[in-house]
Amino acid sequence: MPPSRPSHDVRFVLRQLVEKDFKVRYRNMSLGIFWSLLNPLIMMTVMSFVFTVIFPNPEKLYPLFIMAGLLPYNFFSQSWSAATSSIVSNSTLVKKLSFPRELLPISVVLASSVHFFIQLALLMAAAVFFVGFSPLWALLPVIIVLHIIFTCGLALFFSALDVYYRDTQYVVESTTMVLFWVVPIFYSFEEVSRRSALLAELYSFNPLAAVIFLVRRVLIYQQNPGWVIIAKLGLISIAVFAVGLWFFRRMEREFVDHL
Predict the structure, then answer these.
(1) Model pTM?
(2) Cα torsion through 29, 178, 139, 223, rounded to 10
(3) What distance lies between CA 47 and its chain's CA centroid?
(4) What is the C-alpha separation between 83 and 91, in angstroms, rounded?
């Protein structure tokens, strides 16, 4: 395991890694960061057309409803997938430099969070226009931070696993495809509750589903979601991060031998 570093050195390395990932992602794109806004807008437009014109949906403000589901999902799926290969794709750094290796997957998640914040700001601006501002929006930072912590936990676990089993990346990509339909992105949590109380309870323990539910409840419906589901999200997110960090630090001792 690499020797411990002063906290200011860790912050410097993390900042450099985040900046590197951010710049590399848009290095050869003519529209640059505009793509982080364009992609969810296209998906929102297509899904809104399908579920309001072809398959009518009673949900009011359906475009905002879709965006509130797509943005947390896109951040999660892109971060998890990219972070899973972060150790293997930076094998030269891992072999030649001494630094906390867990910063690699965490930096990928934090770089993706920059795009997430930009997209979320756009959604909040639209929400102000259509439904107005609510003091409940003060809960959004708590929800988003817990979402990032949960994603970092998975990133740590699976990036370490990917060093030993290179098909881990494909497992993650397949899982995110399944989650697109399993979590309530284009349908509501209330619809799940009407189908099955047991299923709704299981959904409440799914951190991604919980985040989408909370963002919609606070941002669009402007209703207090209660502390039970936030507490569940907090406990699961922190537990996943702790397990991910423990697993990563245990497995990193032999990273060099497998890269």
Answers:
(1) 0.87
(2) 120
(3) 20
(4) 13
In the three-class reduction of DSSP (H, G, I as helix; E, B as strand; rest coil), residue 94 is classed as helix
pLDDT band at residue 83 using 50, 70 and 90 as cut-offs? very high
Distance CA 130, CA 3 (A): 53
4 secondary structure, DSSP code = P
Residue with tokens 């309870």: 201
Alpha-helical (H) ranges within 26-167 are 35-49, 62-84, 86-89, 91-96, 103-130, 140-164
**Which CA distances in Å does 184 have to 6, 15, 145, 176?**
43, 34, 20, 13
Q: Is the pLDDT of residue 105 over 90?
A: yes
pLDDT tens profile 188-244: 887 888 877 777 778 878 899 999 999 999 999 999 988 888 999 999 999 999 999
pLDDT at position 90: 85
State whether residue 210 is helix, strand or coil. Answer: helix
| Chain position carrying tokens 């030649």 | 96
